[in-house]
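Re: Re: token formats

Sure, here are both.
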Amino acid sequence: MTINLAPMQRENMTARIYREIKQKIMMGELRPGDTITLRSITDTLGVSQTPVREALLQLVSERALTLSPGKSVKVPELTVAQLQELRSIRLELECFAARRAVPHATPELIAELRRIHASLMESRRQQLMAPVLARNFDFHFALYSAAQMPHLLSMIENLWVQTASYLSYLYTPPFPVLPDGHPHEGIIAALEAGDTEAVVREIRRDIEGHGEFLIRYLTEHGLVK
């Protein structure tokens, strides 16, 4: 039996390029309107155009990137209405995921969430954007993964990546601070108490509160329409 390895190798390369570009968006390294060309990726990674093109088209299909004239794509520039729409969808899906996660919140998960949040708060103290974004992602997706609903998790991640490039503006020093403490602390306390409604309430406070900070900043600085 003959096995053709070339397609598999290209698929693996495409997946790696896809993850690297997606990571740059999620960590605020790429901002709204930034252009990505085939040449810039191929030159940086030393790979052929085919897997790069496939990775970029996959991200376009997920609305993480949009097509531009020529051999390039760009990070989407959203309106206030679009940001608010995506936030509303996130609220529904993430509150649902949190609700379904509570019965599976083991002591080990709670300890992990506490560790992640401690790291996040240390990065906030130092006003370091990338580690804050990374630990915030880790916290939420550790919780949502406990819901044991992989399709739901994928949908939530897709929503995050569509707006993630704007978070580089939210976490421009000084970082915003919500009243009544960080919602993550409330989430951890509610999980320990097995209080589902309190967990959902804190998830909502987190998304709505930071969302309002973001839209206010973008509006005041003329960065959205």
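Second one below.
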Amino acid sequence: MKVYTKTGDSGETSLFGGARVRKDALRIEAYGTVDELNSALGVARSMKPNQEIDVIIARLQENLFVLGADLATPLSKESANPPRIDTSHIEHLEKIIDSLEPRLQPLTTFILPGGSPIAAHLHAARAVCRRAERLVVKLSHEQNIGSSPLVYLNRLSDLLFVLARFANHLNGVQETPWMSR
């Protein structure tokens, strides 16, 4: 199978279910940003985090493929039978957050993104996640996408923040508090 199909040469692409849309359509922007987030997490994994963090990121990457398929498939196209993000995915994120937070010092101020290389990459991934979330919010006002994709991205950005803090903790790197000037 060839990598190039030439079907997108005119600036259109296919959704799951077969509908053709412009490549700059909001739905494409949304799942394209989810793909960008997945790549950002791949960069984070390339930093060789400890095994606990690596396992978490690997699972997140798998679930982002599910989210991408979900966003690429209009709800009216159930015949395409795509995987969908659901409450079990969201609960999994919450479980991870609940397991990591007690291992961290409570926050008393805002912190600047950064620290160890892995934490810095996780903070950058969190920013991409927030952008994806904003696009999904916008998409949800135009089309019925269900509530789970939006909730998932909101919770994922929380997890990425906690995971970045956890990476700094494991690496003995102090977080930098934000000081208003």
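The chain has one domain: 26-172. The two ends are 58 Å apart (CA to CA).
- S.
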